[in-house]
Amino acid sequence: MQSYTKKQRSTSVKGHVGIKQYADIKPTIWIGKQGISDSLIDEIRGQIKMRHIIKIKWLQSVEIEPLEIAASCNAVLVQTRGRTMVIAEKGHQRR
To answer: How distant is the alpha carbon of residue 89 from its chain centre?
Structure first.
């Protein structure tokens, strides 16, 4: 049995280093049992324009595809870890 470090279990986009880099960002979007709706996508787009990078969490009972959400919001999926994802505005570099 092969053991994995926390860094190996998370998914992140090339160019964004460090698993703890986004730990200080608080989730601003919570996806509930009703799942993704058009109004939720609009809210995510608005927050990305305002904040440039956001964290989204979802319930365990909800099936979502983080890449599809990022694509529908015209954003980049930066990191997925458990039931949490970080998405950023295209071309945004965290300082």
So the answer is: 11
**Is residue 74 over pLDDT 90?**
yes
Instruction: Please write the tens of the pLDDT for every residue from 22-64.
Output: 888 899 999 999 999 999 999 999 999 999 999 999 999 999 9
Residue carrying structure tokens 């595809």: 65
47-67 as b/e: b if 16+ CB within 10 A: bbeeeebbbbebeeeeeeebe
Q: Structure pTM?
A: 0.74
- Domains of the chain in start order, with CATH, are 6-89 (3.30.110.60)
Dist. CA 25–CA 71, nearest whole Å: 21
